Amino acid sequence: MKVWINTLFVCLIFLLPNVQAVEVERLYEVEVIAKSEQEADKVAAIKLAMQRLLMRILAGNEIFNDATVASVLNNAENYISEYQFSLAAGEQKSARLMRVLFDEEKIVSTFRPGKIGLWNEIRPRTLMWLVVERQGKQQFFDPDTMPDIERVLKKASKQKKIPVLFPMQDLKEKRVLSISDVLSAYSEHLLEVSVRYEVVSTLAGKLVQQGACWTAEWTLYFDAKIEQWRSPCASIDQATLLGFQGVYDRLSKYYAAKPERKEVAAVMMKISGIDKVSEIMQVTEYLDALPMIKTVTWLAAKEGYNFYRVFYQGARKNLNNRLATDHVLSVESFLNQSADEVKYRFLNK
Questions:
Q1: Number of domains in the chain
Q2: Which pTM does this prediction carry?
Q3: What residues make up the domain containing 65?
Q4: What CATH number has the domain bearing residue 208?
């Protein structure tokens, strides 16, 4: 199954506006530190910038073993649209902050004939529950009292281009969710509370300060799977970046467009005519079984409609035609074939 069934009953409690997939900004722009403005240091910085770019647009476990990747890295200067130097705070006097903007069209055309998937700028948000432990005391992450943690989270999110959403931690959440729930091996309670944010992926993390170094533990809930990994003793920047790298590795495999297939897009399905939990399950299982659909997430019931966030692959027209053929859902209204929200009625009683 591609959906978390155990969240269905609690969803009715928490209703907020839709959290859509977002367009990340400046995907092909990278900032690195160059030792100086001298030619050799400039070339090294450009190669590092290209490496970071490829690590946030390509999907695969061993991308740097690919011949095309090696060629692009070795000829990184040929893919530059523009670059700019500025003073680098906190670095050696000769060091410079280098902003490099790469040519998106040229890079995409280079990789399109190959076997590696490309993840575009439309990316779903990941809800991040974070616990920070210092001197044996555990607390939920609070940007107001933990500016150092906020800084590294923003830096890692920017480097990997993973849009994140942090929980509100309002009174309602504080009453029903504890730190032990976030860190527990049993995810039901955490996912039940998380459903109010209408996301397809939830990351639970714990950052622990141990003297001069930091360790971290991460758990990602995505596509009805639970995956865990650790960040060994390192700087806080490195430990946090490994958390975001783990999210990128897993999500990019689903949402990157490979040469032989279309990119993944999202649609909000508002379905009327569903009156029972068994019918919610029936519709969920039907959508889940369609070959074009990657993930199905039931979000809420409101004003006579059940809300489903669906990520699909291929042309929307083909998806609409398949739904019409199966006679399980009928279209009530939509503005055009690619509308972000479509109203349906459940027929298969």
A1: 3
A2: 0.70
A3: 29-118
A4: 3.40.50
